[in-house]
């Protein structure tokens, strides 16, 4: 699950996981939990990966961070559900006040997959969001020619793992 700042509406060239801990240079083993962070260093956005034992929480001024598990190279690959399935689930969350954080994360995922296009935001990319009230993003979907107004609702630390499990359960499938 990615914990996001408003920066993620921009496109960055982020490197793949190095498969090594940035703190102690230890190689990650299959199935091992690790954390990744994106930080701005001058004009670049840099990714660092940390083993679970070396993780001390996200650094200050982090652009985003997420928890992952090192895949087993012999395991069958997981694939995202088709974009139309993801869009359908996104639309099902419309109006559900208890799932606004999930809808926000899914909107950013659909933006990343180029299913949605950002039209406008009430938040500047450098603005830190403290109060979620009245902070919105407007998206357009060329597939169905619909406009979506999304409340920016950052998931709490407790909700991050719940949202990750929910989306994985609903939107991932094993490759045959």
Structure description:
This protein has 176 residues and is α+β, with helices and mostly antiparallel strands. The protein folds into two domains: 2-69, no CATH class; 78-174, no CATH class. The protein is 22% helix and 29% strand. It contains three helices and nine strands, in the order βββββααβββαβ. It has helices at 83-92, 100-112, 157-171; strands at residues 2-4, 33-41, 44-51, 62-69, 78-80, 117-121, 136-141, 146-151, 172-174. It has a four-stranded antiparallel sheet with strand order 1-4-2-3, with no helix packed on it. The chain has a three-stranded antiparallel sheet with strand order 6-7-8, covered by helices on one side. β7 (136-141) and β8 (146-151) form a beta hairpin. α1 (83-92) packs antiparallel against α2 (100-112).
Descriptive tags:
single chain, 176 residues, alpha+beta, four-stranded antiparallel sheet, three-stranded antiparallel sheet, 3 helices, 9 strands, globular, disordered N terminus
Whole-number tally of structural domains? 2
Portion in helices:
10-25%
Q: Kindly state the mean pLDDT as a whole number?
A: 81
Distance between the termini: 25 Å
**Count of helical regions:** 3
SSE order, one letter for each helix or strand: EEEEEHHEEEHE
Instruction: Please outline the major beta sheet.
Output: 4 strands, antiparallel
Which descriptor suits the 3D outline? globular
Helix-strand category: alpha+beta
